[in-house]
Amino acid sequence: MDTEKNAAPNHDKTGSSGANTPRQQKLRDLHDKISGKLRTPIWNLNNSLMFSDRLSLSRILYFDNLYRQIVGNTGIICEFGVLYGSTLSLLANLRGIHEPYNFLRKIVGFDTFSGFNDQLTDGERAQGWEAGDFSVPENYEETLTELLDAHEAYSPINHKRKFELVKGDVTVTFDTWLDENPAAVIAMAIFDMDVYQPTRHVLERIIPRMPKGAILAFDELNYPLFPGETVAVHEVLGIHNLRLRTDPHNAAQAWCVIE
After folding, report:
1. Under a CB-based contact definition with an 8 Å cutoff, are residues 221 and 242 in contact?
2. Does residue 171 have a pLDDT over 50?
3. CA atoms within 13 A on the CB side of 245
4. Model confidence at 154, in pLDDT bands (50, 70, 90)?
């Protein structure tokens, strides 16, 4: 669940009544008031620590926990549903912290960058979701590429790009990507596409590339606003076959280790 998503009308994936609550606006106002006065060499550190809220920090800790579990395991990381790229940026920095010399730990992000397509289920439409929800500005992937390059510059072996963005409908692009990357082993797959059709498509194809010890992470499992993700997981993998775990600070997220 990306806390920066432009949620559909009357929906906020964080569980609050609106995407711009008074508390969040207060932090933004204070950021605008104070940030211009921070002139120290560690401005970025001060900025990050002072204005990150509980939700943002808990998400960082959540992904840090997941990342630590794959250190020492072979494979790349795939995120399905990138949006603005906050999780990709975080993963790139976690790689730089936990295994800076692992140049084979590529991070691959898949997204339409134009929001949901029109192949939504009746249940998803009943929740108010429409084609185009969660879209980003045109050509945003170019800006995201610049951002990820900037993050990689802080780590060793920074002349070698260790990320990839795959734009388009994942029900088409993922099959092509698998064919073009026969050597790819997937150590962690993060599902944040929210809806049934693309989630099921990827699940049906990704498991053969994931060894024991790999992690499947879901952003909307057991989450009523997005029933399609749970339905897809149940139909393909069987909920009863999975040892699902969650984080006490991130109720909608769940993960399991392939056993």
Report:
1. no
2. yes
3. 10
4. confident
Closest CA to 188 of 106, 81, 75, 110: 75
SS3 breakdown of the chain: % helix, strand, coil, rounded to 5?
Answer: 45, 15, 40
CA angle 113, 84, 71 (to 5 degrees): 110
Q: Which two three-digit tokens encode residue 237?
A: 């993998």
Query: pLDDT by residue (tens digit) across 21-80?
Result: 787 777 677 667 766 666 655 556 666 777 778 888 999 999 999 999 999 999 999 999
pTM over 0.90: no
Give the CATH number of the domain where residue 177 resides.
3.40.50.150
Classify residue 61: in a domain, yes or no. Answer: yes
Tokens 């509980």 sit at which residue?
A: 54
Is the residue at 188 inside a domain? Answer: yes
For residue 248, pLDDT over 60 is answered with yes
Q: Report the C-alpha gap between 165 and 207 in whole angstroms.
A: 21
Phi and psi, residue 106, nearest 5°: -70, 145
